[in-house]
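In response to reviewer comment 3 from the previous cycle, which asked for concrete evidence that the modeling workflow produces usable outputs, we include below a single protein chain processed end to end. The sequence was submitted unchanged, and the resulting structure tokens are shown without manual editing.
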Amino acid sequence: MSAKAIERSLWALFAAFMIAVPWIIPALISSFWVSVIAEILIWSLLAASVNLLFGYVGLLSFGQALYFGFGMYGVAIGIQDLGLSFWPAFALGIVASMTMALVTGIFAVRLTWHYFAIITVVFSLIFYFLALTNKWLTGGDDGINFALPPTINIGGFNKSLTDPIFQYFFVLCTAALCFLLMHRLVGSPLGKAFLAIRDNDMRARLIGLNVYLLRLIAFVLSGFLAGVAGGLFAFFGRYASATYMFYHVSGEAVVWAIVGGAGTLLGPLIGTTLFIIVREIVSTHWEHHSLIVGTVAILAVMFAPKGMVGLWNDFISRIAERSGAPVGAVELRTEP
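The workflow returned the following structure tokens.
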């Protein structure tokens, strides 16, 4: 069996499992884990925003929590203070995130390497402290609680995220759509231009690419992914808080993306899944669960330098070679 055939079979099994989660997981374990899986999907979008910049453009950002927070507050303020319904509030959160990414990106993408990482942290800290001090708008540490408006309200048909099954499928469909957009982006001419900049920005300039503009576009797109994640998380918890704008949230997303596999489509999802499941299991037995999470991160980096996806791709390739079948490109890489 070729690597492509193996990969297609696994994709089919994965899709079937994700669709059946609301019924399989409660029967096997507990309904609590359905919420955990939904949370994993949300956080994987934040890790995907890191991956877009680092894995495909070569810019390591520690400020993605800023745009995540703007997505949260856009939703919360839109519903609580502006009286918006579900979709306008969601759109407000995403637009706010992309606007902030555009404003900060104008300055940040002029820099590279550690200078870029530092300035993204600085912007994140500035707006984190502004959110803490302007309690009249953000609620500070206490945050903003809000009641969920209906997601769909057409005639007599009314659906809201208060329904756990509907909430799960809404999160699943939104995350799947974002990852599909990422897949299309990577395979597009714009995605190839991102890769050219990542591999050698000097050569990219020599062949006529506007490196500054392309980096800025990638930065705004990463703000979109983080904003979608923030908006979903606000709906998920009916809550927005400045705590989620702190740079340690960005740091976790960086770890998830790198351990999962930077520069791969599903790397952020796999890395997020690994660490959140470890956290949930260990935290019920030991309060110092961060030590276990850190140990897992160290081991993953040591024994899987290409990330978990890279390790998996190598494993599938070896199986295909031993079976004598041709080794095709494995779609998990999503590299042109």
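Confidence is low (pLDDT under 50) at residues 327-331. We consider this sufficient to address the reviewer's concern, and the full set will be provided in the supplementary archive.
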